[in-house]
Design a protein that fits this description.
disordered N terminus; single chain; 104 residues; globular; two-stranded antiparallel ribbon; 4 strands
Length: 104
């Protein structure tokens, strides 16, 4: 099966999306992040699930964590300069108890 030209194929009886379709769906999800964060967005969002055929699913409106939370990341020298990061408490807006992946 050759998906390099954008055609869908069949593998073990399942439809397999083309690389172009997967890229288009990922780009659409990431475009929502950029639209929310702004033109200087440096976030590359890849925390989405995939359907049975391997297509990325937009989960930006789903609950990311139950209840208020904080995020932290230790500095990783692999990514260059920087320091450890710890967010403030993240809460969902409008009285909801749990933040979404893309909290408005």
């Amino acid at each position: 099966m050759d998906n390099s030209k954008g055609s869908q194929g069949v593998l073990f009886g399942f439809m397999v999306p083309s690389e172009e379709e997967i890229a288009r769906l990922r780009d659409a999800i990431r475009a929502r992040v950029v639209a929310h964060v702004g033109p200087d967005c440096q976030v590359v969002y890849d925390a989405f699930p995939f359907d049975d055929a391997g297509r990325p699913l937009d989960n930006l409106d789903e609950i990311a964590v139950n209840g208020p939370c904080e995020f932290e990341q230790k500095r990783d020298p692999e990514w260059g300069e920087g320091s450890d990061y710890r967010s403030g408490v993240v809460r969902a807006p409008h009285g909801s108890r749990s933040p979404r992946w893309l909290t408005p």
